[in-house]
Design goal:
Structural class: alpha+beta
Order of helices and strands: EHHEEHH
Largest sheet: 3 strands, antiparallel
Bound molecules: iron/sulfur cluster
Distance between the termini: 34 Å
Number of helices: 4
Shape: globular
Strand order of the largest sheet: 1-2-3
Oligomer: single chain
Length: about 100
């Protein structure tokens, strides 16, 4: 896993179509969850990770390390964060008009 410093140019799918990991949403703006855990941070979100050629939310991958926890709670925390960011519900970034 690497930090999101690579500028991939995967086209964003339409709003609510399957997420393809283009990362545009989290590169452009930090969501409420990100603001809560990384107050004052500027986009791209510090939690954004590039894995297997796709951008993913690090809170839904390896939250324990990302949040500096002294234990590994990823098995419990990662699915909770995934649900909180709407993972599996399609692209959450509205299309520009
Ligand atoms: S979904 Fe994750 S990576 Fe994207 S802005 Fe929110 S906290 Fe950051
Ligand atoms: S939610 Fe949309 S903009 Fe964000 S990574 Fe997925 S496809 Fe790209």
């Amino acid at each position: 896993m690497t930090t999101a410093t690579v500028n991939l140019s995967i086209p964003k799918p339409p709003f609510r179509a399957a997420c393809n990991g283009c990362g545009l949403c989290c590169r452009a703006q930090i969501c409420e969850l990100g603001e809560q855990y990384f107050p004052g941070a500027q986009a791209p979100c510090p939690a954004l990770r590039l894995q297997d050629g796709k951008f993913q939310c690090g809170l839904a991958l390896t939250p324990s390390a990302l949040l500096g926890l002294r234990f590994n709670g990823d098995e419990i925390l990662a699915p909770l964060f995934a649900k909180a960011i709407g993972s599996g519900q399609g692209c959450g970034m509205e299309d520009e008009t």
